[in-house]
Each structure stands twice: as C-alpha cells, then as structure tokens.
Design the sequence.
C-alpha cells in the first residue's frame, strides 16, 4: 500500500518520539495502528464491492446474451416449423376432400371379392399345422422315461 523504507520509518519514529514524548508514544502508536488497520479493512471492502459490481455487470451481460440467443433459437425453430405445419394442413385438407367425395367407378378397376384362402403374411405361421412332435408347446419326455 505505502512504500516506506526502513530509514524513512526510523526518521518518522524519532520525530514522533521528540514531538509526542516518551509517555504518550505507546498510546499514540496503538491508536495509529488501529486506524491503519481500519483503513486497510475499508480499502479491502471497497475493492470487494467494486469486484462484485464488475462481476454482477458481467453476469447481467451474459444473461442478456443468453436470453437473446434463446429468443433467436426459438424464432428459428418456429420459422422452421411453420412450413411443416402448412404442408400438414394442406395434406389434411386434401385427404379430407378425397375421403368426402363419393367413390366413382369407371369400370376399369372392379372390386375384387375377398378370398379367404389368400395368403396372409401375418398369420402364416398359425395356418401351417405342425406335427405334434414339433409343436412349440410339446416337450420331449424326461430322459428316464425314454426306452
């Protein structure tokens, strides 16, 4: 804080001893020491307050930047969603119009009657009759019963 050399301190101490006197010098030295301590604590407090203000300003600026980035991202996402929404609305309207029109038969495509013997891919395994020894529920007898 202050830059005093040892020689300068000796000169100040000698002048204080001559001016103040040897009886009051210890009391004055204690008082001056206490005041210097208070001054150092006050300066440290002011420095800490300034540092907190600088950090607070940095945090506020960072918060503003993050809010702006969030708004920009939201706007970009909403702008990207609007064409998809419009396309889905158009598709839904076209599907609704197509389903609400009565069917027209031009004669070239005739309705096929349903054939019960038509191959069904999803039930193909159930339609095949397995012999009982290959049935999934059939288990071979235990080893001791086989002869």
Sequence:
């Amino acid at each position: 804080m202050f830059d005093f050399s040892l020689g300068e301190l000796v000169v100040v101490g000698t002048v204080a001893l001559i001016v103040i006197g040897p009886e009051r010098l210890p009391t004055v030295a204690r008082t001056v020491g206490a005041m210097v301590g208070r001054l150092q604590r006050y300066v440290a407090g002011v420095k800490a307050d300034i540092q907190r203000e600088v950090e607070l300003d940095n945090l506020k600026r960072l918060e503003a930047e993050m809010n702006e980035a969030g708004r920009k991202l939201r706007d970009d996402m909403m702008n990207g969603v609007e064409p998809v929404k419009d396309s889905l609305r158009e598709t839904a309207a076209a599907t609704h119009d197509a389903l609400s029109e009565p069917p027209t038969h031009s004669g070239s495509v005739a309705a096929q009657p349903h054939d019960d013997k038509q191959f069904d891919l999803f039930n193909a395994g159930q339609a095949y009759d397995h012999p009982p020894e290959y049935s999934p529920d059939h288990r071979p007898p235990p080893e001791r019963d086989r002869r």
